[in-house]
Design a protein that fits this description.
By secondary structure, this protein is α/β, with parallel strands linked by helices. The chain is built from 11 helices and 10 strands. The protein is 44% helix and 18% strand. It has a 5-stranded mixed sheet with strand order 3-2-1-4-5. It has a 5-stranded mixed sheet with strand order 8-7-6-9-10, with helices on both faces. Helix 1 runs parallel beside helix 2 and helix 9 packs across helix 10. The N terminus is likely disordered.
């Protein structure tokens, strides 16, 4: 672990369901990577939330330091609103760096730059939430959606989970016990831990949004044998297409990349998004990894 010969850059992509990190060397090679629990910049607004973030980042730092000591850190964080001073100081302290060696930004900015150069195309990202993003040649960030799960975030993991639970419990209102005939409901209740309303209530209202978003995995797993689950995923693709369409209408047609963990839950999401967009708009599923891109940007900026 000799940091005097070659500096390393640490890239962090913090989402609601998981945090991915990577170390890059000066030639851009990814020399190590790993995962930690998900978290959000919104947690920095309370003492309990800050303690949770500190604990997650301390674990991440121990994982990273086994491999190398980074000279610079770039962290893309979900829920980031522009004031990253506290996070910057926290990360600097954990890695023994000057705060100036740490950059904190939106996770979507990192994801965009992993897929496109500024001005090149539109990114539609579906993780726990959803957003359409564009960074123009002047570096200005333009968005569609990304307003949070209480308002919208259609097509994201939380939205998929919420739609599934809404359907299940409306069915129970009409015919108690109907869930037993639904593969989706069976999978959802197995994930939650039971079919009692108190369990669903605690699950949807008592947890961080990232934990709720993971329920989308159960919905996707049942899509092949449950038409309701399949319809929810198809609608998710349409919701994501709306974000791309909004950006194209405002800023002109450009290629679109679909990224994020929820976007890859099932092939029908991409397929329905493709159907909902005009044929003239190019759509690709991006395999670019934001934590890799962030690590390479960090090492390029390392002192």
């Amino acid at each position: 672990m000799d940091n005097t010969i070659s500096p390393y850059g640490l890239g962090i992509d913090a989402g609601g369901t998981r945090t991915c990190w990577a170390l890059a060397s000066v030639d851009g090679a990814i020399v190590a990577e790993g995962e930690a629990a998900g978290w959000s910049a919104l947690q920095m607004g309370s003492a309990e939330g800050r303690d949770s973030v500190q604990a997650t980042l301390a674990l991440l730092a121990r994982q990273v330091n086994v491999h190398a000591l980074p000279r610079a850190v770039r962290a893309g964080v979900t829920g980031f609103g522009g004031d990253g001073g506290a996070l910057q100081r926290m990360l600097a302290g954990l890695f023994g760096l000057a705060p100036a060696a740490v950059t904190v930004c939106s996770d979507i900015e990192s994801a965009y730059l992993a897929s496109f150069a500024p001005g090149q195309g539109y990114l539609v990202y579906a993780g726990t939430g959803s957003i359409g993003a564009f960074i123009d040649h002047a570096g200005q960030f333009h968005r569609a959606g990304g307003r949070g799960v209480c308002l919208d975030d259609g097509g994201g993991g939380y939205w998929i989970a919420r739609e599934a639970l809404r359907h299940i419990w409306r069915g129970e209102d009409e015919q108690p016990g109907r869930w037993r005939a639904s593969p989706m409901a069976q999978a959802v209740f197995a994930h939650i831990g039971g079919d009692d309303w108190a369990l669903s209530r605690q699950f949807i209202y008592g947890q961080e949004r990232g934990a709720v978003g993971k329920l989308a995995l159960a919905v996707a797993a049942s899509a092949a044998c449950d038409p309701v689950a399949a319809a929810i995923l198809t609608q998710a693709g349409r919701e994501l297409a709306r974000l791309a369409s909004a950006l194209c209408a405002r800023l002109g047609p450009r290629p679109v990349a679909l990224a994020g963990r929820a976007a890859g839950l099932h092939a029908s999401i991409f397929a329905s998004m493709r159907t909902a967009l005009p044929d003239a708009i190019s759509l690709m599923q991006s395999g670019a990894q934001a934590h890799h891109a962030a690590a390479r940007m960090a090492v390029a900026a390392a002192p």
